[in-house]
Every structure is written in C-alpha cells, then in structure tokens.
Amino acid sequence: MTLERALADAERVVVVTGAGVSLASGIPTFRGTDPDAVWAKATVEHGTYRFFREDPVASWRWYIDRFSSLLEAEPSSAHRALAALERWAVERGGSFLLVTQNVDRLHALAGSQALVEIHGRADRIRCARRGCDNGEPRGSLPRGRSLDAFASAPSIETLPRCTACGDLLRPHVLWFDERYDAHRDYQYQRVMKATKRAEAIVFVGTSFAVGITDAILSRGVRNRASLFSIDPSGRQPHRLVEPVRARAEEVLPALVQALGAQPPSVATPIDER
After folding, report:
1. Is the sign of the CA dihedral 223, 224, 228, 233 positive or negative?
2. CATH H-level, domain 3-259: superfamily
3. Where are the domains of the chain?
4. C-alpha to C-alpha distances, 148 to 68, 103, 144, 157, 222, nearest whole angstrom
5. Structure confidence by residue, pLDDT tens digits, 60-111
6. Per the CB 3.0–4.6 Å rule, which of 31, 40, 211, 219 could disulfide with 207?
7. How does residue 263 score in pLDDT terms, banded at 50, 70 and 90?
8. Can 119 be counted among the known catalytic residues?
9. CB of 222 within 8 A of CB of 37?
C-alpha cells in the first residue's frame, strides 16, 4: 500500500517527526549521517540532568548556543505540508496527531494545532527543582530575557534562578536521564492513547534512537497500523515499516497536493502560555 492510499483510507493518523524534518530550515540533525549532527559533535552526557547539576555553566552555555539558532529558524515546506495534512484529515472527520521530538517550535509556527512537543520547547524554561510551582510536574516560564545576563557574562553568579524558590532555572526540555511522564507538557499519555487507536503512523526524519519512537513503533506493529518512514537514508526500523526514501521537504508537499490538501495561509502558533 502506498503512503497516499494509507492516509486516504485511515480515519486516525499519527505523524512522528524528528530532526530531519527541520533540516531544510537550517537546523542540523541530532544523529544520523549528517556530519553536522549535534550528538556527533557533543557527547550525549551534555543532554542530562546530571551534567546540568554538575556543571550548570557549561550546560547553559551549550544550550544558549544551540537554541539561538533554533529560535531564528523559519518553517520549511515540510512543516507547512504537515499543517495542511492535519487540516485535511480533520475536515474529513478524522483524527490527527503530530508528535514532534523537536524543540524548535517550527510546527506550531507553520500552523499545526494537534501538536505534542514531547521533548519540550526551546522558548521556555523551568525551575530545576521538582515540586516548585515553576518546575515539574506542571510549571514552566517564558524564556524572555531571563538569560541575558548569563549570555553576556557566563558564570555561577549570572546563572538564571527561580524567583519562587531560588534554585537554578533550566531548559524546558527532556534530558536523556529523565522520563517522558515527568512533566505535563510532554503529554506522554495523550501520545500513547492516540497511537493505540491509530490506523496509520508516519515517521518523518527520525533516527529511531530514543524511547518515544520505540514505544510508538511497538504499538503500531502490535495494532497492525499502516507504518511508513520518510527519510533519505531509506531506514527501515522494522520489517512492517514501509520506507519512503526521500527528503521530507520534497515528499510531503507532493503528498498533500495529491490528497487535495492546501497549506494554511496564516501561521497560528499554539499554546503561547
């Protein structure tokens, strides 16, 4: 079955995106064969809560450098196509959920509404102390100008601190040594519920190297959903996954055109709390 036919036949669709969907926006991937992949240049240890507590200055310097480029990026044709695909699915009376591993907010900027940013958001921060009103399991804050002093003169003294409890502020992202259910914003249970009911699951630009892709893939296989992976490498993580060897920014616009969907004319970012 082709991807176009699977989506046309499905009433419940889940799309899972990884860093590859933002490559055309100038954001390097985290893994894969891209020589600029982030985790090829920095050890995974940088992406842990333990490292943050051991060396918060080094941790914040790394994230500020990384996030500055994310927050300047613009959505690509792939992001806009997925927003169009969502609207097309909903207008037909179906359900659609976009689960992104990216923290760059580009899906929201492109107009996606049924969106779960399961690894967090680059434009928000939170208290590092669990139980604080500004921290896990529910709290977060706009990034705003809270990092300006540290960015100008990185030091222990200029590290951003929580006004509620005095502990350090941290990026509002999921680290490798943390759990998907640790914060409400990751919406893990919503993802699992949608995946359990999905008739078609499409992976886009993901290396299948983290827990959420394993969990979604396993459920899709168990529930006999139609499974596809869009990636220029032709990666096939499971024998039941149909590989679509192409770049997201090439195949997704063609797909929505074939389905008769149109990109939204106005970007409408969601959840600007």
Report:
1. positive
2. TPP-binding domain (3.40.50.1220)
3. 3-259
4. 12, 20, 9, 13, 48
5. 999 998 888 888 899 999 999 999 999 999 999 999 999 999 999 999 999 9
6. 31
7. low
8. yes
9. no
